[in-house]
């Protein structure tokens, strides 16, 4: 996908700045008669690559670099959350060529300045074996900035980039990494659970493994306390499993909000849940638009920090 993007981008540049001007210069040098109909056609045709270049430049140089803060207020009928409790969510940072550890530091500094009680990360942060160990240490530096700590669940890219080594790196930090397990937040009356990513493509087996991971993650949570539970999971279809289990909120990512959108709606809605808040009965789900990119361009889908106030 990255190679295709740059191929189209460079091809549009060549067309706009070399081919079309070259054709005009050649016609004038040869003193060829002007074909008005052909000129009108060329003007219309030229508008497409010009628009492509403008959109690509905006999406790659501006929008993907400008994070927005999206804020939501949710009501917990079961209580358990301190008054005005706020958590922040990031997801899909994808450390690597287009998002390095200095970018991560700036993002964490930005969130800490807003003062949420907790930061949660819903997978696909660790995506570069050369950057991952330093990223884990960087998270540890910021733990004290959040009174209720930093919490993390795995995404599919952690499995691609050496999940056991990533677990070792996180074990050396104070980050709460949840691997198909739940923990009652220290000093609080609510739970956080984290489910692993089902690394299997066949749909039926994926659904079965997803249900198994959800059950394992929530097995330590008493049934009466699940309405005071937040489930972290990378794939957005865990929203269904969380709602069926009766948790208050399931936080997910994975889709990047589809990276392209119009008027707040995803342009290529290929997932069941693509971005934003989902309400299922008394349960809520959220699909984070991501902080990194599959390839370096976002249009109508800015990277975000999602803040949730739970009363």
Could you list some keywords that capture this structure?
alpha/beta; 311 residues; six-stranded mixed β-sheet; 2 domains; globular; 8 helices; single chain; Purple Acid Phosphatase, chain A, domain 2; disordered N terminus; 14 strands
Please, could you describe this protein's structure?
The protein is α/β, with parallel strands linked by helices. It has helices at residues 2-29, 36-61, 101-114, 132-142, 156-160, 163-171, 203-218, 238-245; strands spanning 68-74, 85-90, 118-122, 150-153, 176-177, 181-184, 191-194, 229-232, 249-252, 261-262, 265-266, 276-280, 283-287, 304-310. Helix content is 38%, strand content 20%. The strands form three sheets. It has a six-stranded mixed sheet with strand order 1-14-2-3-4-5, covered by helices on one side. It has a six-stranded mixed sheet with strand order 6-7-8-9-13-12. α8 (238-245) links the parallel β8 and β9 (249-252). α1 (2-29) runs antiparallel to α2 and α3 (101-114) packs parallel to α4. The radius of gyration is 23 Å and the shape is globular.
């Amino acid at each position: 996908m990255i190679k295709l993007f740059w191929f189209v981008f460079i091809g549009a540049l060549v067309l706009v700045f070399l081919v079309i001007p070259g054709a005009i210069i050649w016609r004038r040098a040869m003193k060829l008669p002007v074909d008005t109909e052909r000129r009108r056609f060329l003007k219309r045709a030229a508008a497409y690559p010009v628009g492509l270049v403008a959109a690509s430049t905006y999406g790659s140089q501006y929008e993907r670099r400008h994070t927005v803060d999206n804020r939501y207020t949710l009501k917990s009928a079961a209580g358990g959350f301190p008054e005005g409790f706020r958590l922040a969510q990031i997801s899909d940072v994808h450390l690597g060529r287009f998002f390095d550890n200095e970018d991560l530091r700036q993002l964490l500094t930005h969130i800490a300045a807003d003062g949420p009680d907790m930061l949660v990360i819903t997978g696909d942060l660790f995506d570069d074996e050369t950057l991952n160990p330093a990223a884990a240490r960087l998270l540890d530096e910021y733990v004290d900035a959040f009174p209720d700590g930093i919490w993390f669940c795995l995404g599919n890219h952690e499995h691609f980039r050496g999940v056991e080594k990533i677990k070792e790196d996180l074990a050396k930090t104070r980050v709460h990494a949840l691997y198909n397990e739940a923990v009652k937040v220290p000093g609080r009356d609510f739970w956080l659970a984290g489910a692993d990513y089902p690394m299997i493509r066949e749909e039926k087996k994926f659904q079965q493994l997803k249900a198994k991971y959800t059950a394992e993650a929530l097995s330590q949570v008493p049934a009466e306390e699940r309405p005071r539970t937040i489930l972290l999971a990378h794939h957005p279809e865990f929203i269904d499993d969380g709602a069926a289990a009766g948790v208050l909120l399931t936080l997910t990512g994975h889709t990047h909000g589809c990276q392209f959108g119009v008027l707040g709606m995803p342009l290529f809605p290929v997932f069941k849940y693509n971005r934003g808040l989902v309400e299922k009965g008394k349960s809520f789900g959220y699909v984070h638009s991501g902080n990194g990119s599959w390839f370096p361009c976002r249009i109508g889908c800015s990277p975000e920090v999602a803040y949730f106030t739970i009363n």
